[in-house]
Amino acid sequence: MTGTDRLAPVTERAARWQTLVPDAVPPAGPDLMVALDIDGTLLTHDGGLGPEVRSAVADLRDSGTHVVLATGRSVQATVPVARELGLTDGAMVCSNGAVCVRIDPGHELGYEITDVVTFDPGPALRLLREELPDGLFAVEDLGRGYKVTAPFPMGELTGEVEVVPFEELLEAPATRVTLRAPHLSSADFDALVDRIGLHGVGYAVGWTAWLDISPEGVNKASALEMLRGRLDVGDGATVAMGDGGNDLEMLAWAAHGVAMGNAGQHVQAVADAVTGDVHEDGAAVVLRALLER
């Protein structure tokens, strides 16, 4: 996409995007499932939500399409985004696929946790701490917040954050473990994982110098495939958009996997197409194209 294209109105760019959508992908409606990453895809990394993206998500929701937020965020950090987008029913994939949620405005929390996959965090935590004794470690405390070894920068974690001894992080099964080491690059994290030989877990490198550890075989794609079956959506009737390393499997899984323009080259390489970046309403372009087919 040229610089001129990026400045064109969303509707013009959406009209051109329609030619990129496979014919087998159904039009917007109950036969279609669209999975959307949040940070760097719908929201800018400072939390901004543009009006074009907001309205496109709302129109897709009103068409009856299954709009599924698929994020590394915890449940309590995802629910406010769903509310801001006007998503009042349906499913969400949280914690990189380890937690699935049904949105339920009638529930006292506004949602119900339907599926949880956990793992023993002890072996991975011990190996990582041997390599990075000064790293910040966090274990998700499902539905509440996080247990951490030291405070994380303000705003990076949501919910109740409790500082605990490192050994307490080892005590209970976890949905996700996070290591924060801002002096390491993505390549450094990949090398670290290879060097220490993490086994029985999955991992993804986040954009904020995070390494997320998850249960083996669990990712956004595995959770979305489970939801696709429940919703009785055809395997060729899926679209996904994302920008991060934790979106790789999801983009490969979708019949039409779309990387954001701000995604790294390794993410763009697995996608079927690349839209504009998050500051150029790249997500809105794709959603409008689906609505106008």
From TrEMBL:
The family database entries (InterPro entries) matched by this protein are listed as: HAD-like_sf, HAD-SF_hydro_IIB, HAD_sf
Classification via SUPFAM superfamilies: HAD-like
Hydrolase found in the keyword field = yes
Q: Which GO terms describe its molecular function?
A: magnesium ion binding; phosphatase activity
Q: Which UniProt keywords apply?
A: Hydrolase
Q: Its GO CC terms?
A: cytosol
Q: Do you know which NCBIfam families this protein is assigned to?
A: HAD-SF-IIB (TIGR01484)
User: Could you identify this protein by its name?
Assistant: HAD superfamily hydrolase (TIGR01484 family)
Protein's organism: Georgenia soli
